[in-house]
Automatic annotation (TrEMBL):
Keywords recorded for this protein, A-Z: Dioxygenase, Metal-binding, Oxidoreductase, Zinc
Domain spans labelled Extradiol ring-cleavage dioxygenase class III enzyme subunit B: 35-254
CDD domains reported in the protein's UniProt record: 45_DOPA_Dioxygenase (cd07363)
Names of required cofactors: Zn(2+)
The keyword Zinc belongs to this UniProt entry's keyword annotation: yes
GO molecular function annotation: ferrous iron binding; oxidoreductase activity, acting on single donors with incorporation of molecular oxygen, incorporation of two atoms of oxygen; zinc ion binding
Coiled-coil regions listed in the entry: none
One Pfam family hit: LigB
Species name: Leptolyngbya iicbica LK
Protein known as: Dioxygenase
Family assignment from sequence similarity: Belongs to the DODA-type extradiol aromatic ring-opening dioxygenase family.
Annotated InterPro entries: Extradiol_dOase_DODA, Xdiol_dOase_suB
PANTHER family to which the protein is assigned, alphabetical: 4,5-DOPA DIOXYGENASE EXTRADIOL-LIKE PROTEIN
Length: 255
């Protein structure tokens, strides 16, 4: 079968220990879609000048955050890496003109493990992480996704892990705080543009979408969406909601 691709808003690092609708959605993810042979994931928390691919056989769990409950640092994501898949991804990207590096030391940052430890807590699915380029455009990441698309026919689930809205200035002390109007407006616009498959609007979201710069003062948390979009196709929303006020937890499938 040909797998869909996913964009997941991973929210704050304490996602795995917070009960709520997003946690329920992620725990049931592999009832919504079949279990893949492997996952190739682009995270907003691995930023490099050129595409870099994790090739470690046993990646460590990285605790790349502070100020959250100490029990988070006791969680370990046990999924293995997949060096053979890492090599294949490198070849696919190289064939499309991307300069590529392999990194045999990179562990799973929280953009990877906080959603996946809910979806696959036993770590049965191997994972390869791909970096993103924060100084490149949405079009660059769309092209990156298109280069990865052949993996969908080989049992690989391509995932972009970021955030549909991401402004720490709107971060509330309350996990269940209501979202501000400016975050809802952007979240609604994004859902509508994806439902209409309006690639032109999405690529130019910064000039078109309401409160675009306020929701994304920097772009790294939305850019993984364009990888999923490029590798997939027509999108549909799988989940929506907000945490800590301004953090959209929206998730999309593209197929």
């Amino acid at each position: 079968m040909t797998f869909p691709t996913l964009f997941i808003s991973h929210g704050a690092p304490d996602l795995p220990i917070r009960e709520g609708a997003t946690q329920t959605f992620l725990r049931g993810l592999f009832t919504e879609i079949p279990v893949p042979k492997a996952i190739a994931i682009v995270s907003a928390h691995w930023l490099t000048a050129q595409p870099t691919i994790s090739s470690a056989a046993k990646p460590a769990t990285l605790y790349d955050f502070g100020g959250f409950p100490p029990e988070l640092s006791q969680l370990v994501y046990p999924a293995p890496g997949h060096p053979t898949l890492a090599d294949k991804i490198a070849n696919l990207l190289t064939a499309q003109g991307f300069p590529v590096r392999l990194n045999g030391q990179r562990g799973y940052d929280h953009g990877v493990w906080t959603p996946l430890i809910l979806a696959d807590p036993t770590g049965r699915i191997p994972v390869v992480q791909i970096s993103m380029q924060p100084h490149e455009t949405p079009a660059h990441h769309l092209r990156l996704g298109k280069a990865l698309a052949p993996l969908r026919d080989e049992g690989v689930l391509i995932v972009g892990s970021g955030a549909a809205t991401h402004n720490f200035g709107g971060f509330s002390d309350r996990y269940d705080a209501p979202p501000p109007d400016w975050a809802v407006a952007f979240d609604d616009w994004l859902a509508n543009a994806i439902a209409q498959n309006n690639i032109t609007q999405l690529l130019n979201y910064r000039q078109i979408a309401p409160f675009a710069a306020r929701n994304h003062p920097t772009e790294e948390h939305l850019l993984p969406l364009f990888v999923a979009l490029g590798a997939g196709g027509q999108g549909r929303q799988l989940h929506r909601g907000f945490t800590y006020g301004a953090f959209s937890m929206a998730a999309y499938a593209f197929a």
